[in-house]
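This week, work through this protein record:
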Amino acid sequence: MPNDRLRDAILRNGLTPVAVAEKIGVDAKTVERWITQDRTPYPRHRHAIAAMVREDVPYLWPDAVTPEKASRIGQSELVRLYSRRSAVPYDLWRRLIERAEKRIDVLAYAGLFLVEQDPMLIDVLRQKAVDGVEVTILLGDPTSATIHRRSVEEGTPGVMAAKIRQVQQYYNRLDSAPKAKVRYHDTTLYNSIYRFDDEMLVNMHVLGFPAPHAPVMHLRKLNGGDLFRTYSDSFDRVLVSATPQPGDGVAA
């Protein structure tokens, strides 16, 4: 069976098997066999090709990385663990946002702290979107039972919905920005996820504690790792069911 993912990735990047072979120092027929016979290259060649076509090794060769190895690599994806979100330096948030070139993803209930700690954030996000960065903001639906329950769990009924409506006033300014979208979800979040290209801050949710007092993981994606990918997949699952307007097809 041919490796259609590898073939597509090579062609999509304007390359040929001959060009790939020349870049990594192997015979062109070897690259052809990797494609047509789904042969698995040596690890050094897998990583070189993955970088060349800007794809993950597990995507191109799903069976090449065992779950055990993916788990070991995933441990190295953890850059730092902060005991609470309030301990994450503001400079780190700013650096991650400013350096993002492909995507900025936010999955939270409100995430009001982002715009409160940086009044210029919306202008920065708008300019990023103009420059071609995909900016996706997923906020909780303030009309949903999920948001009401979260407020009750934190001992502040109604406050979460109020925070979301407050932050809406900021993100409404992204409405006309290309590459930017704001969506609403009624998902029960076990983590808030903030992704900036290949780096991510994951704010864990702890029952009875507001998000600023819960731990944060700083992750950096490594080829073949499974930790970063787990949270990326979680973001994508919420995005699929999110809607453009609060209460628009979201269960209340």
About this structure: The longest strand covers residues 134-140. Strands lie at 78-82, 103-107, 134-140, 180-185, 191-196, 199-204, 216-220.
